[in-house]
Amino acid sequence: MRTSGRTAIIALAAMFGLNAQPSQASNIVADLDQVAMVMKKAGYQAELGSNLGERFLTAELDGYKFMVLPYGCDDTKRNCKSLQFFIAFNPESSPSLEAINAYARENRWGRVYLDKDGDPALEFDLDLEKGGMSEDLFLDNVAYWEAIVQAYAKFVFGER
């Protein structure tokens, strides 16, 4: 009788999902193939590319093209630890360094600077070591990136 009671509890637990296995969904890691797939599924036109053996991903947001770059990779350019979202704008007149610094002081997310050509650039890094992050959290970070790009574009193109 003791065995049948235990069997009934196990059966009830399984029926109500109490004994369910963890979700088989894999976390997003700094793998550009996986990131491209997830971004395409979310509606982005993401394309993989390479230059001099360095892989990258390009995508578009509100008419602005941006790049996703892997960092902290091993010698085979795999097993990367982080991703960097990057965009540089080419306005007719770039904001001054003082204006860029003021923007940086007032805005928490994203790293802003003038690149080597004097164009306003924006970076956003994601640490994906130690197992990465869920797809939902990854896409939430991409939504932050979208908001940052939109705000910075307004600043760069004159809505200062």
Notes on the protein architecture:
By secondary structure, this protein is of the alpha+beta class. Helices cover 35% and strands 25% of the residues. The chain has helices at 2-15, 32-41, 97-106, 135-156; strands at 47-51, 54-61, 64-71, 82-88, 111-114, 120-127. The chain has a six-stranded antiparallel beta sheet with strand order 1-2-3-4-6-5.
Beta-sheet strand percentage? 25-35%
The assembly state of the depicted protein chains is single chain
Query: What about the largest sheet?
Result: 6 strands, antiparallel
Note the total helix count.
Answer: 4
Number of strands: 6
Low-confidence stretches: 5-24
Query: What is the gyration radius calculated from CA atoms?
Result: 22 Å
Gross geometry: globular
- Secondary structure class reads alpha+beta
How far apart the termini lie comes to 77 Å
Outline of this structure?
This protein is of the alpha+beta class.
List the helices and strands and how they pair.
Blueprint: H1 2-15, H2 32-41, E1 47-51, E2 54-61, E3 64-71, E4 82-88, H3 97-106, E5 111-114, E6 120-127, H4 135-156
Antiparallel strand pairs: 1-2, 2-3, 3-4, 4-6, 5-6
Comma- or semicolon-separated keywords:
160 residues, alpha+beta, 6 strands, globular, 35% helix, six-stranded antiparallel sheet
